[in-house]
Prior knowledge:
The chain has helices at residues 21-24, 45-53, 71-85, 88-91, 94-97, 99-106, 122-126, 133-137, 141-148, 162-166, 186-189, 192-208; strands spanning 6-10, 14-16, 33-36, 63-70, 111-113, 119-121, 152-154, 172-175, 181-184. The protein has 209 residues and is an alpha/beta fold. The strands form 3 sheets. It has a 4-stranded mixed beta sheet with strand order 1-4-3-5. Strands 2-7-6 form a 3-stranded mixed beta sheet. The chain has a two-stranded antiparallel ribbon with strand order 8-9. A hairpin with a 5-residue loop joins strand 8 and strand 9. The chain is globular.
Amino acid sequence: APTNMRCVYVDLDTIVLGDFGKVAAELKGPDDILMFGPALFGFNGVKRQLRRMSGRRRYAVGNSSIVAFTAAAGRRLADRYVELSADPSVRQQRHMKIDDAFISWFAADHLRPIPKTIAVMFRREFLSRVPGYSKIKGRFPWVRRRRQNLVAVTFNGVEYTPSALLKLSQGDPIPDRKGRTGYWSEKDMGGLQQKIASYCRDMVEGTDT
């Protein structure tokens, strides 16, 4: 593949609702890699400095349900993994055991978060540990506009299977194992709720046939 070809990896736990070219368009240079950032503070200069000071031992770990990269960056990442895997002692290190961690470790100096105007993680976007906050957030007009234009939503977590979501009634709570709660309702989720429900129905019906 041409070295400047833009590539986007999408995990099976992600639903695509719009033009995925918007994710690829966020790549600004040949070394760029985009993924979901950490929940707190994301990827930033402070974390990069801490990484340098720690001798590359400390680094911010993102989520790889969606990863955007150029063909050249993807090839360098794969080659580096194969090279390091040849050393048995290195294979036991944390960044070699988890894909999220290896990508975050390898690309720490160039890693950028996927903008929340394009794609989100379901539990971070619609659930909250603060009682009632998901309801308040869902009523802000700018949040509703942003959600309506999302091109992808990732459902990382066993709680959020299509069949499980389709069993919910309007207004039902959506808890997770980390103490977050949201609500399955148009008032709280906006028009995106119906888009998600339609996608889930297609998935379930397609599995049953």
